[in-house]
Write a structure and sequence with these properties.
CATH architecture of the largest domain: 2-Layer Sandwich
Shape: elongated
Strand order of the largest sheet: 3-4-5-2-6-7-1-8
Strand content: 15-25%
Low-confidence stretches: 487-503
CATH class of the largest domain: Alpha Beta
Number of strands: 26
Helix content: 25-40%
Radius of gyration: 27 Å
CATH topology of the largest domain: Nucleotidyltransferase, domain 5
Largest sheet: 8 strands, mixed
Oligomer: single chain
């Protein structure tokens, strides 16, 4: 090549990144911890694809890449900074700041080798409406940096916009190899990426990097005690399989972990699916690793109870089904979450879900938002009456719809330890939205003010708040409200008699 620049990117310490670069799949997505070399690999792969392009008659290999980040600020401070560190402007020419930001790299050929003409356009596409920005774009490859922050509609639109540059009509050759690239820290389990990786559609390849750190109880190799990292009330150690360590500062993870909670460490240092709250969690006591269970039993000798968040004009109603074990542990079995659904369709959905999930069982009692006592203008009866008479679920107004009481109804039993178990246990598979809400998506939004960090006084209303509110009504009606008021002294009194159903949650 006619460029006096020699920078070697050695991926010997990042074998997963190397596997991604050498894979022929149309769509390649790599997931891993912070600092694992994902972004560097993507920058290298864009240039490699440009070098693989069939040259045009004029002796140039033409390639056009789109680089996408969810916000302009992140694009400038992280994505573009990484790109410049590998392709410095003093060598590859200036980055032009416009709409979009572009970096046009031209490397002349020599000794019979074709030159490379690579046009890179940097775009911030953080909202679904930004799909319009892609509808007229034509390129060879798109790289989504931090893919978990990108809407599925934008990702889907991109698959139709690559492979269109160069074109035979303009350059005499077509795109040799189109590609969609994505790197990301792990999202939570209800993210579209999780479902996509689980389904494994044709043409997709997913690459999961090994965790950078593990808890000591997971370690099966000899280690130096001086390397142990104290964080989140436990101990970690950097794994021998951690990628890109040679390019990280010494003690990178030892400095990163202290002060972080387990969910943050699981996502950013272990590369595991999980949720890290943006804001202040409404229920900080919730621990998904302790309270979510795969084998949560449905007790035959305890009634099925329900909490319902419906009324007040919401079109996102929710219902939560659970039981109260006689020792005082709440078993949360199932959620029904709806979007853009009115009363009739929702009540039908609840009845169908209960019949499928709990055959030959009935809901003994349900509690709903007291706002459900207002008359529905379409059915000319109260919402609670409709649930009681049309759906056949004995539904009553919850003792209160005070938000502080609903929050306390969740937090109080979570602070109890009964027979070695937390006071609330959730079914991992059937309560996904509720788990995400309790993990932090039910939150106090951060207030944008200077100085001390501040949050809103009331929880944000979103898709995750509705099942959390429904669960609050379940717990309030099922006994937590009486416990708060001191009128149910027996509800959580220690007992020595054995339950009729043996309680084995592990």
């Amino acid at each position: 090549m006619g460029l006096a620049y020699h920078k070697t990117l050695n991926f010997a310490g990042s074998p997963t990144v190397w596997d991604m670069i050498n894979d022929p799949s149309f769509i390649r997505i790599i997931r891993g911890a912070v600092g694992s070399g994902k972004s560097t690999g993507m920058c290298a792969e864009i240039m490699r694809l440009a070098m693989c392009q069939e040259p045009a008659a004029d002796g140039w290999r033409y390639c056009k890449a789109g680089v996408v980040r969810n916000t302009y600020g992140e694009l400038m401070t992280t994505t573009l900074a990484t790109w410049r560190s590998i392709y410095p402007e003093e060598v590859f020419g200036p980055v032009r700041h416009g709409a979009p930001i572009t970096h046009h790299i031209r490397i002349p050929g020599d000794n019979g080798n074709p030159g490379i003409d690579l046009l890179v356009e940097f775009m911030a596409l953080d909202r679904v409406k930004d799909v319009k920005k892609l509808l007229s774009w034509e390129g060879s490859v798109i790289w989504f940096n931090e893919l978990r922050e990108v809407a599925k509609q934008i990702f889907d639109a991109a698959t139709a916009r690559v492979g269109r540059y160069p074109s035979k009509a303009q350059r005499g050759v077509n795109c040799t190899r189109a590609a969609i690239l994505g790197d990301t820290n792990p999202p939570d389990e209800d993210h579209w990426l999780y479902a996509l990786e689980r389904d494994g559609p044709q043409g997709y390849e997913f690459f999961d990097q090994p965790p950078a750190v593990l808890e000591l109880h997971e370690v099966d190799w000899a280690y130096d005690p001086r390397e142990v990292i104290e964080a989140a009330g436990t101990q970690f150690i950097v794994t021998p399989d951690a990628e890109n360590l040679d390019n990280l500062p010494e003690g990178y993870y030892a400095r990163m972990l202290p002060g972080k909670d387990l969910e943050w460490i699981a996502v950013y240092a272990q590369g595991r699916y999980g949720f890290v709250a943006d804001g202040k969690p409404v229920v900080p006591e919730y621990r998904d690793d302790l309270m979510a269970r795969d084998d949560l039993p449905v007790l035959e000798d305890r009634p099925l109870l329900m909490g319902i968040d419906i009324g007040g004009g919401t079109l996102a109603p929710a219902a939560i089904v659970g039981q109260l074990h006689e020792r005082g542990i709440w078993l949360i079995h199932h959620e029904v979450c709806a979007l853009d659904m009115g009363l009739e369709r929702f009540s039908t959905q609840v009845v169908q879900d209960v019949a499928t999930r709990f055959p030959n069982r009935d809901i003994e009692r349900a509690w709903a938002d007291p706002a459900g006592n207002q008359r529905d203008p379409l059915f000319e009866q109260t919402i609670i009456d409709h649930m009681r008479h049309s759906a056949g679920i004995p539904t009553f107004a919850a003792p209160t719809n005070d938000i502080r009481s609903r929050i306390t109804a969740w937090r109080t039993p979570m602070g109890r330890l009964i027979d070695g178990q937390p006071g609330v246990l959730l079914n991992r598979q059937h309560c996904r939205t509720l788990r995400a809400g309790l993990s932090g998506r039910w939150r106090y939004r951060r207030v944008q003010v200077s100085g001390t960090e501040r949050f809103s006084e009331k929880p944000e209303k979103n898709d995750y708040s509705h099942p959390c509110d429904a669960g609050g009504y379940l717990l309030l009606g099922g006994g937590e409200f009486r416990s708060m008021k001191g009128r149910d002294k027996k509800l959580h009194r220690p007992t020595t008699h054995r339950a009729k159903t043996e309680f084995r949650v592990f």
